[in-house]
Amino acid sequence: MTTKPFDQFNKRLFETLLSPFGTVIPNRSVLGEERAIDIYFEPNPDVLLPHDELGYLTFMLDKPALLEPFRSSLSDEDMHNCLLKLFLVYAEYRRQDESIRTENLPRLWMLCASVSNRLIEGFNGQLDETLGEGFYCLAPRLRAAIVVIDELPTIPETLWLRLLGRGRTQEDAIAELLLLPEDDALRMNVLSLLVSWRINMDLLEQANDEERRILMALSQAYLEWEQQTRRQGMEEGLERGRQEGRQEGRQEGRQEERRAMIVSLLESRFGLIEDELQAIIPALMQLSSEEFLPILMQRSRDELLQQFLN
Predict the structure, then answer these.
(1) CA atoms of 110 and 70, how far apart (whole Å)
(2) What are the residues facing 40 on neighbouring strands?
(3) How far apart, in Å, are the Cα atoms of 285 and each of 147, 179, 229, 268, 306?
(4) In what order do the strands lie in the sheet with 65-70?
(5) Which helix (H) or strand (E) holds 42?
(6) What angle do CA 265, 162, 187 make, to 5 degrees?
(7) How many CB atoms lie within 10 A of CB 189?
(8) Would you give the DSSP letter of residue 20?
(9) What tens digit of pLDDT does each residue of 155-186 get?
């Protein structure tokens, strides 16, 4: 189980948003250094990023990009480390193609809830005239920018970025997510990620006063996700039930609901569900939600395998 719920959340969020449109590599290693890029994205040249779905991300990620999200404010050390990663990636690109033009090199986006004016001025950050409020570009040939999430305008185009903010900014973004249509392509998936984050925060007891307010907002997201999962499972089961009998359809709907909840909880605690964890899902599905919820939230992976594989 990760000890950094925000780190896991932001990586899975960008994987969810961007995987259909290119290659997303969390924790991409940098040659010759014991350091990793938080998220590296390389767009598929044959697929356009849809502005109506991704908003400002379409402008940020039209070329390969390094994404470095920070839960707290940026420091000088953070800036130096991010720029070092960027220069090491540039060196990799130039080893592969010595004639590559600077404008075709990856761009660095440092995403943070807030940042001091002193730091922006110290690194010669200038307000981006194209993207506007909250976006600060460093020297043009550096291809690096700071995104101050708390300064972003509250518009649909910034929603996915504002989910990475703090305090009221993030609370408002969660509320906006809940207002999206239930058939929205990304709504259900992102709700599931928020639920996983909430569970991890509860398990690790990392919440301070500010985080507790976020947990209250996430509790509403959890209820929405649970209700939608239940409804979706029932609808899928009932659809099959029209062909095989209504009673059997209701039973399948309940089974789909239970499986979806179990899978989400396992993923939130242990990440990718490998074969051993897959093998215990049928046994967990035999339990009621009142029985399997405390088991999945309290027991370690080894304890789960020992109990249910035997």
Answers:
(1) 8
(2) 25, 66
(3) 44, 31, 15, 17, 17
(4) 22-29, 36-43, 65-70, 107-112, 144-148, 135-137, 126-127
(5) strand 36-43
(6) 45
(7) 15
(8) G
(9) 999 999 999 988 889 888 988 988 888 778 78
Distance CA 108, CA 152 (A): 18
End-to-end CA distance of the chain: 23
Provide the CA 29 distance to its chain's centre, in angstroms: 19
Q: Which two tokens stand for residue 37?
A: 């890029």
- Give per-residue pLDDT as tens, 85-107: 999 999 999 999 989 998 889 99
Closest to 92 (Cα-Cα) out of 147, 141, 138, 30: 30
CB neighbours (10 Å) of residue 184? 13
* Of residues 83, 87, 74, 69, the one with CA closest to residue 32: 87
Contact 89, 52 (CB under 8 A): no
Instruction: Give the C-alpha separation, 157 to 134, whole Å.
Output: 13
State which amino acid sits at residue 179: L
Reduce the DSSP state of residue 43 to 3 states and report it.
strand
* SS3 per-residue string spanning 101-133: CHHHCCEEEEEECCCCHHHHHHCCCEECCCCCC
Amino acid residing at 30: V
Structure tokens at 292: 């399997």
Give the pLDDT confidence of 191-235 residue by residue, as tens digits.
778 777 766 665 545 555 555 566 555 665 666 656 666 566 555
Count of CB atoms situated within 10 Å of the CB of 284: 22
The tally of CA atoms less than 13 A away on the side-chain side of residue 10 is 24
pLDDT averaged over every residue in the chain: 80
Q: Are 106 and 89 in contact (CB under 8 A)?
A: yes
d(C-alpha 83, C-alpha 245), whole Å: 62
Measured in whole angstroms, how far is the alpha carbon of residue 236 from the centre of its chain?
27
